[in-house]
Structures are given as C-alpha cells and as structure tokens.
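Methods: holo model generation. Sequences were used as deposited, without trimming of termini or removal of tags, and paired with ligand SMILES retrieved from the corresponding compound records. Each pair was processed once, and we did not select among multiple samples. The sequence and fe (ii) ion SMILES for this entry were:
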Amino acid sequence: MAADVITLIKADHRKVEELFAKLSSGRGDPRAIVAALHALLTAHARAEEDVIYPRLDAHHGLEQHKEAEVLLDSLKRAEPGGTEFAGAHALLAVSVSHHVQEEESTLLPLLARTTSERELRDLGRTFRQRRQQELRALTWKARAASGGGHLTKTELYERAREADIPGRSRMSKKELEKALARARS
Ligand SMILES: [Fe+2]
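and the model returned the structure below.
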C-alpha cells in the first residue's frame, strides 16, 4: 500500500534532522552534507508547496521556505569552519526546526482531520512524484556545475535547451559551455 502524505513528510523531517545532527557533530564532509541538505529541503519544500499548502491555505509555510532557501544559499557559499558558515548553520537549524514543529503540531493534524485515508495516500503519491522530479532536476544541475566540461556537444545542447538559452542552435561547443556556465551563476 502506498504511503500516505503525512508519513512521507514526517520521514523527510527526520532525515533533515539527521543531516543537521551530522553537520553539528563535525563528522563527514560538511560540503557534501550541505549539498544533501540543500537537495532534500528544496525538493521537500517544492512538493509541500504544490501538493499540500494549496489545500490548507498555508501561506506562512511559503515564507518559511523562502527564508530557509536564503540561509541554505549562504551556507553553500560559506567556507566550512568559518564564522559565516557557523552562523548560517545555526540560523538554518532554528528556522527548519521551527518549520518542522509547526507543521507537525498544526498543519499535518489539520490535514489528517480534513482528508480521507484514501486521499492522503493519493496525495502521498503526488508528493513523492513531485519530490523526485525536483531531486532529479537538482542532481542534474549539480552534475552540470561540477563536470560540464566532459559533455559532448549534443549533451550540452540538450542542457541549453532545457535551460532555454537563446541562440543555442548556432553555438559552438565552447559557446554552449560558456552560456551554460553563465546561466548557472
Ligand atoms: Fe515540511
């Protein structure tokens, strides 16, 4: 039987907490942990925004997601071990734990009260699909950012098409690489 959307959302929250604990413990590569946090939080937020919030008129959650995105961005740019990194990490941890607490104490119980079990499972399916779609797009972006140089011209063109880069059909391989790099920055 498919998992209901509340179970899936809570599972994501536990994973996020694990990643924060790992980052605080100083074990593992901080850059890799931040990248995993970024992917998970972004995919989770998009899926919640598309599948859950419209049903509950939860505008406040959107603001929390925006705040988390800004902090995630600072965390990604900061040097691990530095004060900026520590500051962004601390703020993000507070912001996310507030979001998790609020959802689990108010939003999800409301969803449970107002939605049938069958519907919760249908929502779960949609949530999972939306989340996976977002994760795939993020992995694609990360791969393009780290290893765009070894791609063939056809692959570069395909990426330029997805990024909707104008004039791509007339570009050389080098020009496509440059345009993609510019689109990413
Ligand atoms: Fe959430």
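The longest helix spans residues 83-114.
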